[in-house]
Amino acid sequence: MRALLQRVLEAKVIVDGQVTGEIQHGLLVFLGLGKEDQLEKGKKLIDKILKYRIFDDEQGKMGWNVAQAQGGLLLVSQFTLMAQTQKGLRPDFGPAMPPDAAKVLYEQLVDYAKSQFGQVQTGIFAADMKVHLINDGPVTFQLEVE
């Protein structure tokens, strides 16, 4: 399981011309699920994302998490994060969780995130999403949990 976090000034997801999720200041999180991933591991990752301190505090240092910064969280499924890219000139998506199982786990993780944090928006699983963002910094991190 991998998460790519981007600190944003604003972000939104558009599917078929309609906005499906939108935040102002906060975190845009692309979430990739692997074949062996399970809900407990995902909960650990969501907890880490919510506690990860990448927002400026009163001293201008990365000391605040998304809640302390009064930001939002936009979760977007992205199976391409699980691609193996070390060999050849084409990504290998073999490590990614199959779509049916991934949809169930993704929805469980969205529900968990909403139970832990009040400002959660999402894209639509497996949809052709257009993601618009203004990266703040830019500040981008990749997170994984054991």
Automatic annotation (TrEMBL):
Listed name of the protein: D-aminoacyl-tRNA deacylase
Keywords assigned: Cytoplasm, Hydrolase, RNA-binding, tRNA-binding
Gene3D superfamilies assigned to the protein according to its UniProt record, in alphabetical order: D-tyrosyl-tRNA(Tyr) deacylase (3.50.80.10)
Listed GO CC annotations: cytoplasm
The organism of origin for this protein: Acinetobacter tandoii DSM 14970 = CIP 107469
GO MF annotation terms: D-tyrosyl-tRNA(Tyr) deacylase activity; Gly-tRNA(Ala) deacylase activity; Ser(Gly)-tRNA(Ala) hydrolase activity; tRNA binding
InterPro entries in alphabetical order: Daa-tRNA_deacyls_DTD, DTD-like_sf
Subunit architecture: Homodimer.
UniProt subcellular location: Cytoplasm
GO biological process, alphabetically ordered: D-amino acid catabolic process
HAMAP family for this protein: Deacylase_Dtd
Reactions mediated catalytically: a D-aminoacyl-tRNA + H2O = a tRNA + a D-alpha-amino acid + H(+); glycyl-tRNA(Ala) + H2O = tRNA(Ala) + glycine + H(+)
Matches recorded under SUPFAM superfamilies: DTD-like
Domain of life: Bacteria
Top EC group: hydrolase
Domain notes: A Gly-cisPro motif from one monomer fits into the active site of the other monomer to allow specific chiral rejection of L-amino acids.
Family: Belongs to the DTD family.
Its biological purpose: An aminoacyl-tRNA editing enzyme that deacylates mischarged D-aminoacyl-tRNAs. Also deacylates mischarged glycyl-tRNA(Ala), protecting cells against glycine mischarging by AlaRS. Acts via tRNA-based rather than protein-based catalysis; rejects L-amino acids rather than detecting D-amino acids in the active site. By recycling D-aminoacyl-tRNA to D-amino acids and free tRNA molecules, this enzyme counteracts the toxicity associated with the formation of D-aminoacyl-tRNA entities in vivo and helps enforce protein L-homochirality.
Motif Gly-cisPro motif, important for rejection of L-amino acids, chain ranges: 137-138
